[in-house]
Amino acid sequence: MISRSILKICAVVFFMIFMSAAGNTGEVRIYSGVSDKPVPPGGMRFFLQYLHQNLRYPPEARKKGTGGTVYLQFIVETDGTLSELQVVRGIGDGCDEEALRLLKTSPSWTPGMHRGRAVRVRMGLPVTFSP
């Protein structure tokens, strides 16, 4: 009887140690809503101006008359850099790649803040192409 109880206790202790180690993988939480949202340099007004000035309409899209909105998703890191850029919904003909290029070449943002500290924040951005 005692050996079974000791075995159960050891199993529980092992499980607790394993779970605490698994929870401490160094991963940093990604927020989607924070009190102070990430901001591009100069604010969103200047960022939209940056997009407008640097957007290159892809020749294939121009030829086919492709237009619409490419929806991007990305993470603003604690240092303001952008990571994990991806197209959530695209329109093709080179527009998806152009929208990603614009975001990749944009300057670093001011990071989002949660409870007074910089945190990783998931953001979305629509980029519109009109023929």
Walk me through this protein's architecture.
- This protein has a single domain (29-129), classed as TolA/TonB C-terminal domain, CATH 3.30.2420.
- It is 37% helix and 27% strand.
- It contains 4 helices and 5 strands, in the order αβααββαββ.
- Strands 1, 2, 3, 4 and 5 form a 5-stranded mixed beta sheet that branches.
- The protein is elongated, with a radius of gyration of 23 Å.
- It starts with a helix and ends with a strand.
- Mean pLDDT is 83; it is low at 1-26.
Topology:
Blueprint: H1 2-23, E1 30-31, H2 44-54, H3 59-64, E2 68-76, E3 82-89, H4 95-104, E4 112-114, E5 117-129
Parallel strand pairs: 1-5
Antiparallel strand pairs: 2-3, 2-5, 4-5
Estimate the strand proportion.
25-35%
* Element pattern in H and E: HEHHEEHEE
Gyration radius, in Å: 23 Å
End-to-end Cα distance: 79 Å
Largest sheet: 5 strands, mixed
User: How does the overall form come out from the CA principal axes?
Assistant: elongated
Please tell me the overall pLDDT.
83
Task: State the domain count.
Answer: 1
Helix share, percent: 25-40%
The first-level CATH class is given as Alpha Beta
- What name is given to the CATH topology? TolA/TonB C-terminal domain
> What are the low-pLDDT stretches, counting only 5+ consecutive residues below 50?
1-26
Main structural class: alpha+beta
Q: Can you count the beta strands?
A: 5
Q: Please tell me the CATH architecture by its name.
A: 2-Layer Sandwich
What is the tally of helical segments? 4
